[in-house]
Design goal:
The complex is a heterotrimer of chains A (about 350), B (about 525) and C (about 300). Chain A is mostly helical and about 350 residues long. Chain A contains 15 helices and no strands. Chain C has one domain (about 1-280): ABC transporter involved in vitamin B12 uptake, BtuC. With about 300 residues, chain C is mainly α. Classes of the chains: A mainly alpha (about 350), B alpha/beta (about 525), C mainly alpha (about 300).
């Protein structure tokens, strides 16, 4: 019963967002039913629909988990964008520089790099907050810009193919590629970029759950997020938790690099992130800050991204901006939880949970 | 008693009752804060409203001031029913309120704070010079000396209170409601404060003071209304009553908090505090060169008016104050633990029951089970398996049940959120959690604040039991009855210093009271 | 080195700083009342798009000629105001987390302009070009310049400013004094919306001649950074905006490479400067940075 209660609210938020989106489609002169039919239909077809949906969902699972871990410690990590960019670039760098290494070792090192670099970039705002008390929201936003500039610089000056107009690095060594799922699943062609990183994302969900709810470190992070004064009383070092949570958060965000560089483009491609960091916030909130919820939300948003392309191509006036609109509305409705508490509060249906 | 009794009580038989609350009822969720409350205040009097914490006094007055709206009932001022929906309406009717926690903006000046919401001049320009002139006039009239240009954050508490009074007077308040006005004043400041009140009454102002300090009520007020559990249980002219009767009305029965206990069997020194000082963020010394000892098998009590350094002392002993702000020594079983953090201290079997259970003691949104391992969550037996990283669910459950059942926590369901428990049960949970550590030293502060009678007796019994088992207990309490009946030795703290030690079995309330309020 | 400080550079700095000043001062009113304004970016985008769309429509479709940009400016202000109203209601009335709601608005504003222009102008996110005569390159600069002393005066010398500041520092005290906390916060947020709308409008119909997707590309965040760097005070904020405008001007002028004492400095490093500076300031290395005390905390009457 508790589970149903937890699910009800996100469903309402999504429904409300779709409602508003539908009205907007109507305003610009198309049929909402047609638009949504296209959206959902193209997202759920086999093999392309589901394949691409899950592929688009993969980075969102990582960033959603990243935001989740930080939120559980009472921190808002808006820096997933910067964390995934630095991690992705570093991953590509390792894949280029250590091309001589045997494949398995190389892949392992690349994955490790993504995790460590993302973790370090995430730890910076953590340290700033722990040591100086400066708010992580502003610092992470600023570091996003710094990361983008830094990585763009390195790409442009050191790792670009000379004469290539696109800002991207040389390809990584073939040994650094990770397999597409099409290799293992009959009926799924390998041209669809869904790859092993998706499996890693699923494992990451499990890992986050175990970490937060079954280990002492997770207990300390959650206690700090729930009540730092009481956590301190219980012998927990609040400063350490802040840094740890931000580092783990950054590491999770960094894993986006694995999907992108090792499983899809096989190089670092400047600007590859379609706002994964910010969408991660929506995913975490909609998923009620729980790994299972994050998984479901990420898949939902993956569906929106996949479907958006089709909606754009096959309607007269609707563009794929509809996806941004739906995303924004979902976050807004989730944030304004109180909006819904009125009519439903009487039935005790919606518990006020701490975001 | 301590102050002169109030002897001037003028009757204004010809004037109407100034303020009347009729059948005021107010709920906060499921809690009934005010239940058919009826209060009458006559003009040019000092009227006291007394009751224990949570009796509903502040709520009733905040309704009169428009800060809250009553669910039902009426507010009558000068004989006419008034519709007071917000402080603005109340101010317009001449009602002013000074809250227990001052409502001042630290970064703005005295003048700015006083005129906020009632600014002279027009919308496009503040007329600060006119404001300052008027403030000076009021200062003179009511002997409230204060510099209009000072920043609030640089003023003492007594001065800040004067600013609050000026705020109300500036808006031509006829009725001033003061909520626990002496809670944070030094005895000197209290005397000055009473003089100000008397002057106001002379000038025809009416004053309501909300307080739980009976001695002050008897000293300064003309009439007193007693509240208990949200209801009014009595209204008396001060001259015709005494502390015993008021206390009885407040509590509802003969106040008898004597705890049955044997003499202490005292052993070696567990805790030794030498010249301990704790400096606050603003540089002031909250704890000033304090020295004392606590031995095995005894309860040492610290009595004092709240705000005299007890909080900082306990927090320093528990390891919750940054070492940079501490000077002096804390020794435990002959080990210097001054620089030890909270975790290390708990590992040495020093337990701590904090004075603010919601802020310090509990993770309200966590389950009872998760709360019961707070402090031991990282070590055996709670942690097991590979590398001592994973929480052992069975161990957690058994420890939780040990605490819930052993300490009468109701309901004893380990999966409930801590938030859902009543104050008394929350406190029992915390006590149980600390007691199962089998502490050698227990630091406990305000153990029965906001706790129902049944739980109070339980907690007192367990504390004595712990002492009998050989634990050293340091008890801080603002309830004089509690601290005198539980302690074997009683220290009195005043402005951060230990100003005396008495034998609680022999010392009189007067003696202790004088040390608490005067320091000597 | 001498090439650096030409008149062109100064002028360029002022032009680039203008939208920042407008948005930052708007943000100042909002944050001083206690409401964090992450959504400056979204409000600017709303203003930019609406101004461009309306100006184009007024000129090409309605033939209103020279009146068009003024209409556009008004519309831009209105759009900023509308977005601000939504943000204000969500944060003040429904007490939503302000950062999350602000982020939602920003994401929305990535999509809504593109969505609408796709429908009305059949384009992929941009509005059609507006002829040069119907642009207003200088007026917004004047507005921005005048706004600095006006903001200072309003904040420190009027009852409105006094109440606004009190609500931001100690809303309980303000409430007890009879000041409506909600009303002051609405005022702060709506002002932010209007001013950010002007800032956005300047981008589309002042500095350039059309609206493109995500035109602001982070300027709203830079304005926020300038506000923090400027310690929430009008004059310091303006100086911070000038600094950030200066770094942007240099990176454009030098076309990718800055010559500094003979060495080439890649433009990306210049771009990083304002952000790094903000981080440093926020950490308290340059004076103490104390935001309004109630910033980000929804106001609820406690028992």
């Amino acid at each position: 019963m508790n589970l149903l209660r937890q699910l009800l609210f996100p469903m309402i938020a999504v429904a409300a967002a779709f409602l508003v989106g539908g009205i907007m489609v109507l305003i610009v002169g198309d049929s909402p039913f047609e638009a949504y039919r296209l959206l959902l239909g193209s997202a759920l077809s086999w093999p392309d629909g589901i394949g691409y949906t899950l592929f688009y969902a993969t980075p969102l699972i990582f960033t959603g988990l990243a935001v989740l871990v930080a939120l559980r410690c009472g921190l808002l990590n808006i820096g997933a964008e910067g964390q995934l960019y630095t991690a992705a670039f570093a991953t590509a760098w390792v894949g280029i520089k250590l091309a001589a290494f045997p494949s398995l070792l190389l892949v392992l090192l690349c994955c490790l790099t993504a995790i460590v670099v993302g973790g370090l970039w995430g730890a910076i705002p953590g340290v700033l907050k722990a040591r100086f008390g400066s708010h992580e929201v502003i610092n992470t936003i600023m570091l996003n810009f710094v990361a983008v500039a830094l990585v763009s610089y390195f790409t442009q000056y050191y790792y670009k193919i000379p004469g290539d107009p696109i800002l991207q690095t040389v390809p990584v060594s073939g040994g650094a590629h990770i397999a597409r799922l099409g290799k293992f699943i009959p009926g799924l062609p390998e041209r669809i970029p869904l790859n092993l990183a998706f499996i890693m994302a699923l494992l990451a969900c499990g890992f986050v759950y175990l970490f937060l709810w079954r280990t002492k470190w997770g207990y300390e992070i959650r206690a700090t997020g729930a009540n730092p004064t009481a956590a301190e009383y219980g012998g927990i070092s609040v400063r350490k938790q802040i840094i740890l949570a931000m580092a783990v958060s950054g590491a999770l965000a960094g894993m986006v690099g694995i999907n992108e560089v090792l499983g899809y483009r096989y190089r670092y491609y400047d600007g590859f992130s379609a706002n994964y960091g910010f969408t991660g916030i929506a995913v975490a909130l909609l998923g009620r800050n729980h790994p299972a919820g994050v998984l479901l939300s990420a898949i939902l948003f993956g569906m929106l991204i996949r479907g958006g392309i089709f909606v754009d191509a096959f309607t007269n006036n609707v563009t794929k901006d509809l996806v941004d609109v739906l995303q924004g509305m979902v976050i807004l409705f989730v944030a304004a939880e109180a909006l819904f508490r009125g009519p439903f509060g009487r039935f005790g249906l919606l518990k006020r949970s701490k975001v | 008693m301590l102050w002169e009794s109030n002897s001037t009580y003028k009757t204004y038989k010809t004037s109407k009752t100034l303020l009347q609350l009729r059948n005021i009822t107010k709920h906060f969720g499921a809690v009934v804060a005010n239940d058919q409350v009826n209060i009458k205040v006559e003009p040019a009097t000092i009227h006291a409203i007394v009751g224990e914490n949570g009796a509903g006094k502040s709520t009733a007055m905040r309704i009169a001031y428009g800060f809250y709206t009553a669910d039902s009932g009426e507010i009558v001022i000068d004989g006419k029913v008034r519709d007071i929906k917000n402080p603005h309406d109340a101010i317009a009717l001449g009602v002013g309120m000074v809250h227990q926690h001052f409502m001042l903006v630290d970064t703005m000046t005295v003048a700015e704070n006083i005129i906020l919401g009632a600014e002279p001049g027009n919308q496009t320009a503040l007329d600060l010079s006119r404001a300052k002139a008027e403030i000076r006039k009021l200062s003179e009239e009511f002997k409230l000396a204060v510099n209009p240009n000072s920043l609030i954050e640089n003023l003492s508490v007594g001065q800040q209170q004067r600013v609050e009074l000026l705020k109300a007077l500036y808006r031509h308040a006829r009725l001033l409601i003061l909520d626990e006005p002496t809670a944070v004043l030094t005895p000197q400041e209290v005397e000055e404060f009473f003089a100000i009140l008397r002057r106001m009454r002379e000038q025809g102002k009416t004053v309501i003071i909300i307080t739980h300090k009976l001695s002050e009520v008897l000293a300064i007020s003309d009439e007193v209304t007693v509240m208990r559990d949200g209801k009014v249980v009595g209204r008396l002219p001060t001259q015709k009553t005494d502390a015993a009767e008021l206390a009885r009305l407040m509590v509802g029965r003969e106040v008898l908090l004597r705890v049955e206990k044997e003499d202490a069997k005292v052993g070696s020194i567990e805790l030794q505090v030498k010249d301990l000082s704790v400096t606050a963020a603003d540089g002031a010394k909250r704890v000033n060169q304090v020295s004392f000892e606590v031995r095995r098998g005894e309860i040492v009590g610290i009595a004092g008016v709240e705000g005299n350094g007890q909080t900082e002392l306990i927090e320093a002993l528990a390891g919750l104050v940054e070492p940079a702000r501490i000077s002096g020594q804390i020794r435990f079983e002959d080990k210097n633990i001054t620089r030890f953090n909270a975790r290390s201290r708990r590992e040495l079997a020093i337990a701590h029951i904090p004075e603010d259970r919601h802020r310090r003691g509990l993770l309200l949104d966590f389950t009872l089970e998760e709360n019961s391992i707070l402090g031991v969550h990282y070590r055996e037996p709670i942690v097991a398996y590979a590398g001592h990283v994973f929480l052992d669910q069975e161990e957690m459950r058994s420890r939780a049940m040990e605490i819930l059942e052993g300490f009468d926590v109701r309901p004893a369901n380990p999966e409930l959120p801590a938030r859902s428990l009543s104050g008394g049960n929350q406190q029992k949970l915390i006590i149980g959690r600390e007691f199962v550590l089998h502490p050698r030293l227990l630091l406990v502060s305000q153990p029965t604040r906001g706790v129902d009678i049944g739980a109070i007796e339980f907690i007192h019994r367990r504390l004595v039991q712990l002492r009998d088992g050989g634990c050293a207990v340091l008890l801080v309490s603002a309830e004089l009855e509690e601290v005198t009946s539980l302690s074997d030795r009683l220290l009195i703290i005043h402005q951060g210093r230990i100003v005396g030690e008495v034998d609680p079995k022999i010392a009189t309330v007067e003696e202790i009271g004088l040390l608490m309020t005067r320091g000597h | 080195m001498k090439d650096l400080f030409t008149i062109a550079l100064v002028w360029s700095t002022i032009r680039l700083a203008t939208p920042l000043v407008l948005a930052a001062l708007g943000g100042l009113f909002s944050e001083r009342s206690g409401i964090i304004n992450i959504a400056l970016e979204g409000k600017m985008l709303a203003g930019a798009f609406t101004a461009a769309a309306v100006t184009y429509a007024a000129d090409a479709k309605l033939g209103l000629g020279p009146a068009s940009p003024w209409l556009g400016l008004l519309a831009g202000m209105g759009a900023g105001l509308l977005i601000a109203i939504i943000y204000a209601v969500v944060c003040i009335r429904y007490k939503a987390d302000q950062v999350v709601s602000g982020t939602a608005i920003n994401i929305l504003m990535l999509g809504v302009p593109g969505f609408l222009s796709g429908a009305f102008f059949l384009s992929s996110g941009s509005t059609p070009q507006i002829p040069k005569e119907q642009l207003i390159p200088t007026t917004p600069i004047m507005i921005a310049l005048a706004l600095v002393p006006i903001t200072w005066y309003v904040l420190y010398r009027t009852p409105f400013g006094l109440r606004l500041r009190s609500v931001g520092e100690n809303p309980e005290a303000a409430d007890a004094a009879g000041v409506s906390v909600a009303r002051m916060r609405y005022a702060g947020v709506l002002l932010a919306g209007v001013l950010a709308g002007i800032g956005g409008a300047y981008l589309s119909i002042g500095q350039s001649s059309l609206f493109t997707r995500n035109m602001t590309s982070g300027r709203g965040f830079i304005a926020l950074a300038a506000l923090i760097f400027g310690k929430w005070r009008p004059v310091q904020t303006m100086l911070a905006c000038l600094l950030f405008g200066f770094t942007e001007a240099i990176s454009i002028q030098m076309q990718g490479v800055v010559k500094f004492g003979g060495e080439d400095i890649p433009v990306q490093f210049i771009q990083m400067v304002p952000y790094l500076l903000t981080i440093i300031v926020l950490a308290g290395f340059i004076g103490s940075s104390r935001p309004p005390r109630s910033l980000g905390i929804p106001y609820e009457k406690e028992k």
